[in-house]
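Need tokens for this chain, all 430 residues.
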Amino acid sequence: MVKAVVGANWGDEGKGKITDMLAEQADIIVRFQGGANAGHTIINDYGKFALHTLPSGVFYDHTTSIIGNGVALDVPVLFKEVQSIIDQGVPMPKILVSDRAQMVMSYHKNFDAYEEERLGGKSFGSTKSGIAPFYSDKYAKIGFQVSELFDDELLKEKVVRVAEQKNVLLEHLYHKPLINPDDLYNELQEYKKMVEPFVCDTSLFLNNALKEGKEVLLEGQLGSLKDPDHGIYPMVTSSSTLAGYGAIGAGIPPYEIKKIVTVCKAYSSAVGAGAFVSEIFGDEADELRRRGGDGGEFGATTGRPRRMGWFDCVASKYGCRMQGTTDVAFTVLDVLGYLDEIPVCVGYDIDGEVTTDFPTTHLLEKAKPVLKTLPGWKCDIRGIKKYEDLPENCRNYIEFIEEQIGYPITMVSNGPERHDIIYRESELSK
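Here are the structure tokens for all 430 residues:
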């Protein structure tokens, strides 16, 4: 059976923890899209980790971790990350890399930085991990696929062709140093040495595993609102963040995905530019940021302070719909215990009309939040294991959100540790 763990919003919802937790019952965990531009923070028996490319199931010795064909594979980052977890006492994970995955090159990161510099005040807030240039090249059919590392004749011809094309932009648009084809070839040879022991046809591996009845977990990066088709375009990422793409990015049939766990935070946060209707500012935002996450709301990749906001029912309902949600995992609920009252965004006022349907970006930019305030529970809920033991106002908050978004909240995370989780029966699941 295949389950997907994906995000409902802008990313940073707590997917790493949920994947790490569900991986206990999984045989294989697959990263199916994105690259090292976003991170998953995980706290478990080994310590605290920020993973960027490795699937969040690497902490179990019974699992196989797969880098799928849909991933933007930054080879040095992947193996630096492997070494970093080994250095913290984690056994060497079993890793397979798709022979159809494509590689992030050093020039992709350079182009990412050059373009942000060129755009100045109109930049996208990129992490400069090379993701947009990487996917541009993939779809322009000038990317380097892992399989090509093993065809030397092809590689020697291709590095010349790619360097010629890139050098036009470097010389005339960015006025930066040109690419030497020999340097490019040597870079690829280094990547080959690192990745060769792990390369295989991962789609075939997954096909055989599913025939044997293995449990497979697909791990998404970022969330619905960063999807290039269905998100807040153009302030989006460059690969699809939706569970539907999991079938493509892992190389499995779409009908194999039976469960889609969509992760929502109990409040909102975002990194990077773009419309964020329920955003809060000043002392109110600083306090929530300081208390939030597992040690403050700061990007796992960049360390940037995250933008903060109240829970957005409009965005989350839409995010869950686009994912095809079967279960909602509701995270960081314990953070809100300090508040007397908790505002929730239940609608958008756009030019005097209130809607509960998520609009396209040009309308989103005009939207003002319609807030409803719920009473807080004013206590620490960490350590509680049963839903009925939560304070009444806390349960009311969960049930109000569930009613607004229309998808069953079956998991409630009330702390950063792996087993800080409450399972609940939802009326919507019946």
